[in-house]
Design a protein that fits this description.
With 367 residues, the protein is α+β, with helices and mostly antiparallel strands. Helices cover 49% and strands 20% of the residues. The protein has helices spanning 10-30, 39-77, 83-117, 132-152, 182-186, 229-232, 246-250, 274-300, 340-344, 349-365, and strands at residues 121-128, 156-164, 170-178, 191-197, 208-218, 233-238, 254-259, 264-268, 317-322, 327-330, 335-337. The strands form two sheets. An eight-stranded mixed sheet has the order 2-3-1-5-4-9-10-11, sandwiched between helices. Strands 6-7-8 form a three-stranded antiparallel sheet. Helix 2 packs antiparallel against helix 3 (83-117). The longest helix has 39 residues, at 39-77. The two termini are 21 Å apart.
Length: 367
């Protein structure tokens, strides 16, 4: 088991013991007739109990297995003991250990990545950085790479807004991806992506360096954030410029939303319909507001406790894509992969697994 070496992690066991005690306390309170009259309190406790049960039940099974393992090991250690008993203990020990390790691995996964695994919709924003036309082409390549990975894993991708560049690619593309556990796949993409290659436009064959930035934000619904669309948000309506024939300039369909308390703005001109643009702009606005709040919370928290996923500095360079060497380097885990051609086709498994493992180890250290 990959995480088996962490099974004896003392801090983690202590945390589980704490939850175990809390589970009993919540159960006692739920069964108290005096509490039964407080509807709101009951709902809150029942919800907490259900959440704890998911962790506490397997943990109790784990402890039962550990006790059996210790008993079997004691029998084996007793050289004068009964031969049949020792043979039995020897035979069942590997299976007991395997079951215990499996439960602990699942608990580590649940407690450490549980919150991220619960996110089933994200909004991704890819922007061309320095490097002009070449940066826009690279932003287009990244979008294509994510699209292919999403399709291969059965995630549903929807483009919310895009501004194409003159020579191909995009100055900016914003899209949502939906699916179970989607954030644990794409959460590590936020940051600066640097590309080194000979641009199509370069006659001399010189290698250029350009960049794109990616932001990955968990999508939330309106109940999770306090926003007053009437008071706090100003809506500007204008005609959408750019290509699109007759309709584009006649109808006022482009929308710009401005959130006064934070100054966050969202512009949307992708759809012909003002109504659709408004709905999309609001989705992006909610997500950016929530993200801004989380960033503040993260900054206030002890920096060691910041988990790696989605919390890194957006301007930090996380990856280099070197085309002449067919190499991708992820600077956070010092990983070099010499299969850039496959990665650009959406084959990101090896990379994402490396990041997930590293992330888990960091979080365990910071429990």
């Amino acid at each position: 088991a990959p995480m088996a070496n962490l099974n004896e992690n003392q801090a983690f066991r202590a945390k589980l013991d704490e939850l175990d005690v809390r589970y009993d306390a919540v159960t006692r309170e739920l069964n108290d007739p005096a509490v039964a009259t407080y509807g709101v309190r009951i709902v809150k406790l029942a919800k907490e109990q259900a959440g704890l049960k998911r962790v506490v039940e397997p943990y109790r099974e784990y402890r039962r297995l550990r006790a059996q393992i210790e008993e079997a090991e004691a029998i084996l250690a007793d050289v004068q003991g009964d031969a049949d008993l020792r043979e039995l203990a020897y035979a069942e020990l590997p299976e007991l250990k395997q079951r215990a390790d499996g439960i602990m691995d699942a608990l580590i996964d649940d407690l450490i990545v549980g919150d991220d695994a619960a996110v089933d919709s994200i909004i991704v924003e890819v922007r061309a950085g320095t490097g002009g036309d070449e940066a826009a082409l690279f932003a287009g390549n990244l979008f294509e790479m994510y699209t292919r990975y999403a399709n291969a894993h059965g995630f549903k991708l929807e483009v919310l807004d895009m501004s194409p560049a003159d020579l191909g690619g995009y100055k900016e593309v914003i899209f949502s991806i939906k699916g179970a556990g989607v954030y644990t796949h794409f959460g590590y993409e936020g940051g600066g992506h640097r590309v080194q290659r000979v641009p199509v436009t370069e006659a001399q064959g010189r290698i250029h360096t350009s960049a794109a930035t990616v932001a990955v934000l968990p999508e939330i619904d309106e109940t999770e954030i306090d926003i007053d669309w009437e008071k706090d948000v100003i809506e500007h309506v204008s005609r959408a410029g750019g290509p699109g024939g007759q309709n584009v300039n006649k109808v006022s369909s482009a929308i710009r939303l401005e959130h006064l308390p934070t100054g966050i703005t969202v512009s949307m001109r992708d759809e012909k319909s003002q109504h659709k643009n408004r709905a999309k702009a609001r989705r992006i606005m909610l997500t950016r507001l929530f993200d801004a709040q989380q960033q503040t919370v993260n900054t206030q928290r002890d920096s060691a406790r910041k988990s790696m996923i989605g919390s890194g500095d957006r301007s930090q360079r996380i990856r280099t894509y070197n085309f002449p060497q067919n190499r991708l380097t992820d600077h956070r885990i010092n990983l070099d992969l010499y299969c850039l051609d496959r990665i650009m086709q959406g084959d990101l498994e090896q990379l994402i697994e490396g990041l997930q493992t590293y992330d888990k180890e960091q979080r365990l250290k910071n429990l």
